[in-house]
Design a protein that fits this description.
Elements: E1 4-9, H1 20-28, E2 31-35, H2 36-39, E3 49-53, H3 58-70, E4 74-79, H4 88-98, E5 107-111, H5 116-124, E6 125-126, E7 132-136, H6 144-156, E8 160-164, H7 174-183, E9 191-196, E10 204-209, E11 222-226, E12 232-236, E13 239-244
Parallel strand pairs: 1-4, 1-5, 2-3, 2-4, 6-13, 7-8
Antiparallel strand pairs: 8-11, 9-10, 9-11, 12-13
Helix pairs in contact: 3-4, 6-7
């Protein structure tokens, strides 16, 4: 007997940013697998069970959730942000591909959530108003030279770049090297947005020219957004400036 597996995105941490679809899925599930701070964002009922694990145990978490769902239970795997953006949806799909045939019969529902770059962008204006990309700076699952090549290609092509997983205790140097690489391609005046915990009480949003941007301005709760050469800043006196990227490229017909 096969059960059901939800992979739920809980947004960046503000309860108001959890979608009604995510709340409805959470109400249906019996067992909840996830990184403890993410599972703790839910107010679980007494009849619902929490199974928390370390943030680096994605595949083992996915395997355990799939095994329970294959036994007939209604199971949820929870992610911060959107589960399909550097998160648990890919791990679940990897586990299904490598796992027993019966896992492919599980009813799988992936519930989207507000990802960090969207939350940060909404707090600052419209930096993603034109073409953009997202790159994880973690080299745990891909080589660092590949990350640098992607940064170089994206910056050279005029993309706004959202950097996920910018820095950690185990990876203290990557963001500084990435900023140096970008400084060799982009103007020093290019806006860099350090958006930490967007929408939460400990939110911190900083706008810094690329020439002055420092790795110390970020931690693992920060999404770093690098503007394109066309990204603009609108000063508004005592109010926070607006940062936006025009919908059209220079020289294009409007």
């Amino acid at each position: 007997m096969s059960g059901r597996l939800f992979v739920i995105g809980l947004g960046p941490g503000n309860p108001g940013q959890i979608t009604p679809e995510a709340s409805a899925a959470a109400a249906e599930a019996q067992f909840f697998y996830g990184y403890a701070p993410y599972v703790d964002r839910l107010n679980l009922r007494p009849d619902q069970t929490r199974i928390a694990s370390d943030n680096r145990e994605e595949i083992s978490r996915a395997n355990a959730a799939l095994e329970q769902a294959a036994g007939g239970a209604s199971v949820a795997v929870v992610s911060g942000g959107d589960p399909g953006v550097f998160a648990m949806a890919a791990a679940v799909c990897e586990a299904i591909e490598a796992g027993p045939a019966e896992w492919r019969d599980i009813e799988l529902t992936i519930v989207p959530g507000v990802t960090a770059m969207l939350a940060v962008a909404a707090r600052i204006g419209a930096p993603l108003g034109h073409d953009f990309c997202a790159i994880s700076l973690s080299d745990n699952l891909k080589p660092w030279d590949l990350i640098l090549r992607r940064l170089e290609a994206a910056a050279g092509a005029g993309f706004v770049i959202a950097l996920y997983n910018p820095i950690s205790k185990a990876r203290p140097w990557q963001l500084g090297e990435a900023l140096d690489k970008l400084r060799s391609i982009l103007p020093g005046t290019t806006p860099v947005i350090f958006g930490r915990a967007a929408g939460r009480p400990d939110e911190r949003i900083e706008i810094t020219p690329l020439a002055e941007a420092r790795a110390e301005q970020a931690d693992m709760a920060t999404c770093v957004m690098i503007g394109s050469p066309e990204t603009r800043i609108i000063e508004r006196g005592e109010k926070r400036p607006l940062v936006y990227t025009p919908r059209f490229s220079a020289g294009a017909s409007q």
